[in-house]
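User: Could you check the structure of this?
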Amino acid sequence: MKINKLAIIASYFTSVICSTGSGIELDNFKLSITDSTGESKLTEKLTYPKALSSPLQLETSDVIRLSYKLVKTEDKLPVDLSYNTIVIESETKEYSYHQVQTSGKVGQFKLNLPYKSLSKNIKAQGGSDTNFNIYLLVRGNNQKDTIKYKLASLSLPESKKKLDTEKKSEFGPLPLIHHTFRPDEKVPLKALSLVFSGLVLAPWALLLVGWTSNSVNFSKFPTNPTKAVYNAGFIGTLVAYTVLNYLYWTKLNVFETIYYFTIITLFSVPFGYLTLKNHN
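Assistant: Sure, the predicted structure tokens are below.
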């Protein structure tokens, strides 16, 4: 009885080892290049282990598209291995790129390699090479289930140009800065400015002359205390307007002037009304 059990266990492990060690292969492998609109520019069917004969020439908007099946060597049944990775190698360095995703069916895989993403990934890993080989790495449970398949060679001339430009701009001298100044404003003649200043001040001069020649007549100023307050208040607001006008040109801005003008007006209107109402 023990011998039968041992025989059953031995036969089970033998079948497992044979099934896992039977090997895998790639089937129905397609490589295509599409532009930004999705239109196909190149479509090739690859047969492992043969790589694409001519190097891939990409533009910045192109996308490399891969699709393939993994099957067992013996019975051609699909195999679902999770480790399917694109590896990019140059003469000096190896760059891991992206794990291949399943297409929803067992043993079927697909991957899109946009040019911009590919170039950015190489740069992020410190790469400055221009010539590469693209490999598909499939890793199974043992050595027989491991495939490293060279798909094609790839040249990225623009990638090196951009990297060199960035290095120069980072460590090289900065370009000269040229300032453009506005031309000097034209000002009028000094004599003309003095003439207009005199015209502005002329009314004040005439007012002073009139006060001096005619003198100030206080005989009509009301003696009634209430009326005197009304008249004095109204005259005071007129003086305040004059002072505010002077301060506007020397110190205050327009908003401050409007604020003080409103306050003076609150007193000027009632005092003016009462002064005229009680005027004899």
